[in-house]
Structures are given as C-alpha cells and as structure tokens.
Amino acid sequence: VFSHIVRAPEDPILGVTVAYNKDTSPMKLNLGVGAYRTEEGKPLVLNVVRQAEQLLVNDRSRIKEYLPITGLADFNKLSAKLILGADSPAIQENRVTTVQCLSGTGSLRVGGEFLAQHYHQRTIYIPQPTWGNHTKIFALAGLSVKSYRYYDPATRGLHFQGLLEDLGSAPSGAIVLLHACAHNPTGVDPTKDQWEQIRRLMRSKGLLPFFDSAYQGFASGSLDTDAQSVRMFVADGGEVLVAQSYAKNMGLYGERVGALSIVCRNADVTSRVESQLKLVIRPMYSNPPIHGASIVATILKDRNLYHEWTLELKAMADRIIRMRQQLFDALRAKGTPGDWSHIIKQIGMFTFTGLNKEQVAFMTKEYHIYMTSDGRISMAGLSSRTVPHLTDAIHAAVTR
Ligand code: LMR
C-alpha cells in the first residue's frame, strides 16, 4: 500500500548535516545548521546547565508526573518576564498567557493553529527571505502564507521601503511574522527607529504582530537589547504573540524547550485565550516534556545561576562577533574581490554571504564546506582555526 510513495527531499537546513556526516574528508566543515560550536569545533553544554541538572538530580522530591497541558508554571512565568521585562505592565495586569511548547517551532505551530481557528484574518505575512521552516509551519497550521520584502541583495541590507510598502498594502488585520532580533538567514535587523515606524504602520492598519524570538541575548550579548522590538509593541497596549526558543541562548537544542506568549487587551480575554490554547495542545502532544523546562526555570529563578548564564551567553555572542571580524580581515588580506563589510555589519548567528548556489556547491565539492544553498553560513560553527580554510574556499569560489 505504500509502494507509490516517492522519496522526499532532505530538509534544506538539517539535510546539510546529513550530507556533512557522510563526508569522510578530514577537512570537512559544517556551517549549515545554526548550532554553537567552541573554538575547538565542539558542541557546548553551558556550565549553568550542568549545574542546574545537578540540582535537579539531587532533588529527591522531583517526580515524573504529567505536566499540565500548558506546561511548567514557573517556567512560563519566568519566560514571559525574560522576553517582556521583569516590570512589564502587561504581566502585572494579567494580560499575558504563556504556554510551554516544543522550542521555537512548536511555539510557532501552536500559535499558528490557534490563530487559524480563532482569529478573523487567516493571512500571515512572512519576510522574504525567512527561516525555511516558517512557510511550512504556518501553511500546515491552516494559514495562508504571503511574503513581504525584507532583504535587498543590492545593499545586502534591509529593504525598508519595500517592507513598508508591502505591509502598507496588506489587508487590515493580517498577521505579520517578525524576527525579534538576529534575522535568520540574513543577519539584518531594523534599527530602533525603523522598528518604531513598523510598529506605527502595523498598529494603524490593525496588523497582528507574531514575533519569533530565537536568539535573545545571542545577537548583541544583552537579553534586554535583543528583546527591544517585542517590548516596543507590547508597550502600546495592543495584542502581540511571541514564540521563544531556548535552543540557542541556553544551548538546549535537543531538549526542545520554548514558550508561546499571547499578550491580550485584558485579563478576562487572556484567560479565555489560554483555555483555547489548551484545546490546541491537548490533541497535538497532550502536554510538554518536563526536563528542559525544569533546567530553564532553575536557572532563571536563581540569582547566581542567572548571572552566570548572562556571562556565558555574552561569551558565545562575543566569540561569534570575533569570527565575523576574523573572516572579514582574512578576506581583505587575501584581496578577495567584493565588498565583504556585510560580514561585520550583520548580526546574530548567521552571515548571508551573497554567494550563489553554484558557488556554494563548488565550496562543498572542492573544500568540503557545508552550508545552506542560499549562501548562509553559521558563524557559530567557525573558529580561528577554520577561518583560513573558509577564506580560501570563498576566494576560489568568487574568482573562478
Ligand atoms: C537554523 O536555522 O539553522 C536553526 O534554526 C536550526 C533549524 O532548526 O533549522
């Protein structure tokens, strides 16, 4: 009965790792998936995560019962505070419901399904380009997916005029997916002033903001700075959705821990929204897993662990920034044709190099460097040791 099934292609991002794993060359380098590596090229478990896990193991009162449908209550409260700010009036006025979800993807999917069932406007606008999974998540949630201009290849920067025009002509009430910071894949974010213009335009047209916050603390090294865009929208009293992931900023990739918060107009609406979120979640996965959320809650509620976390986070962000500078300097020193200043201007985990599909394929074939075919490289996968190899590959790709 399954003989008609055709083989599906590998995922454009996770499939890069599949190809990398098959390569036997000692010089191979994986700059595909956005996952942090140390200077030695190794995955990193944060010291605070190890400490939190030790505390959890030692606590004999911990049990393995089901969590509520909405997840671990402490985790939800602390996650809302982290993204919205400890003194957020929306939290004080009980206008925020937060549910623990399966990392950023799960949070986006639950939010998408909720909107498809309960929101009057079923169209979502996503930036062009955006993280490859966004389109599929929202389409499968039952929303109609359209795009707005975001990136200008000519300037390798924000297409601000195009963005304003496209959102300006979106139907009233449409949902708009915004990357809270460190836009994936471009590394290009609006300035504070541009965010304010976007906010005013969206509010004047009644467009509903849905933030994807996958890199809080990772872009600038500051948790508050990276939450600024979300907080600007929440401060005006209007509705906001935000999906948070702890994959990158706590290095909890495989724990699949994240949260969806919905900020509403008043406490009564908020509790009704939460009751409906439970109906979305229950038939999907019943209730979320306990371990990752317990790690996060342990860190966020302990003053010392929290402080230590901010230092470890800043160290990761700073290493990525150093890699940008080293790659830029190396390309300049080699005289590689082109203006590579976007490498140091873009922020977050990725550089959108501007290399095309053929150049990427060449670098993979000849230099065993793995990256997504759109020319995105994960700066977090690079180290001082591998910068020269990448530089040689880019040089050869653009001069051949
Ligand atoms: C990425 O863009 O590489 C990450 O967000 C990992 C993923 O799931 O795609």
UniProtKB/TrEMBL annotation:
Q: What is this protein called?
A: Eukaryotic translation initiation factor 3 subunit L
Q: Which residues of the full protein are shown?
A: 595 to 994 of 996
Name the job this protein performs.
Component of the eukaryotic translation initiation factor 3 (eIF-3) complex, which is involved in protein synthesis of a specialized repertoire of mRNAs and, together with other initiation factors, stimulates binding of mRNA and methionyl-tRNAi to the 40S ribosome. The eIF-3 complex specifically targets and initiates translation of a subset of mRNAs involved in cell proliferation.
Q: Which family does the record assign?
A: Belongs to the class-I pyridoxal-phosphate-dependent aminotransferase family. Belongs to the eIF-3 subunit L family.
Under the subunit heading, UniProt states: Component of the eukaryotic translation initiation factor 3 (eIF-3) complex. Homodimer.
Q: Where in the cell is it found?
A: Cytoplasm
Q: Which organism is it from?
A: Solanum lycopersicum (Tomato)
Additional comments on file? Answer: In eukaryotes there are cytoplasmic, mitochondrial and chloroplastic isozymes.
